[in-house]
Amino acid sequence: MSTLDVVAGAVRRDETVEIVLLLAFAGGYIDAYTWIIHGVMANAQTANLIFLWVYATAGNWAKAFHFVPPILAFAVGIVIAAWLRRAAGERARTISTLVEIALLIVIGILHNRLPDMAGTLGISVVAAMHAAMFIKVKGTVCSTVMITGNMRQAIENIFAVVYGDAPLGTLRKSGIFFALCAVFGFGAAAGAYATKIIPNLALGLPVIALLIVLLRYETTPREVTG
Questions:
Q1: Measured between alpha carbons, how far apart are the two ends of the chain, in Å?
Q2: CA angle, corner 82, sides to 95 and 64, nearest 5?
């Protein structure tokens, strides 16, 4: 399928708009949670790297090293996801989602007992698997853990429509990418609110979102009509 094809046709079940939007909500939510609870980003390793070097150049090594573990844990999560794709094939996304749910439940239950670092490491692994497994919407590369690339594609597609050389379906694709940005932001807002109001239960919402993803993924035909 062409990467520009967002009109009717066969779409992989992990690339449907509903699943990707749910994942974007969970991605924004988890980042807000880890920032408030642990002072690091779960998904945005660019931000962690910037903070690391800002504090390092200021000579504040204690704060600088605070951002190293989530970066390393994210790398571990990417390796796990790559191994799952090789070992499990089509079942890799199902297994990955189950692992993510299990890790979030464990971290949520042990919230008051786990050291901050342990919670950060677990959530960064979740974020990495999330980022590595679900990377397209209707055949087009996207991100469910940050908005930079999605925003770029949304704006570029609007420009192409205005300029007059856009293929059929470009405007709809732009709307999908704007929706991803909005839902990610909504997830971050919900995560921030829930983490402050019910910190011990806050991870329940992304777990529910991932359970719905799992249910939708398992009950949707391998290819659906988009």
A1: 12
A2: 105
To which residue do tokens 């790398």 refer? 75
Q: Rounded to whole angstroms, what are the CA distances from 131 to 45, 58, 127, 134? A: 12, 31, 6, 6
Please give the model's pTM, rounded to 2 decimal places. 0.87
Mean pLDDT of 198-221: 88
- List residues bridging with 224 in a β-sheet: 11
Q: Write the DSSP assignment of 97-112 as a string of letters.
A: HHHHHHHHHHHHHTTT
Rounded Cα distance, 2 and 96, in Å: 26
Whether pLDDT at 1 is above 50: no
Nearest to 203 by CA among 111, 78, 98: 111
Q: Determine how many CB atoms are found less than 10 A away from the CB of residue 178.
A: 18
Which among 16, 49, 22 has a CA at the least distance from the CA of 136?
A: 16
**pLDDT at res. 10:** 56
Q: Domains in the chain, ordered, with CATH? A: 10-225 (1.20.1250)
pLDDT in tens, 131-153: 898 888 888 899 998 899 999 99
Alpha helices, DSSP H, located in 39-147:
45-57, 61-65, 68-88, 92-109, 116-133
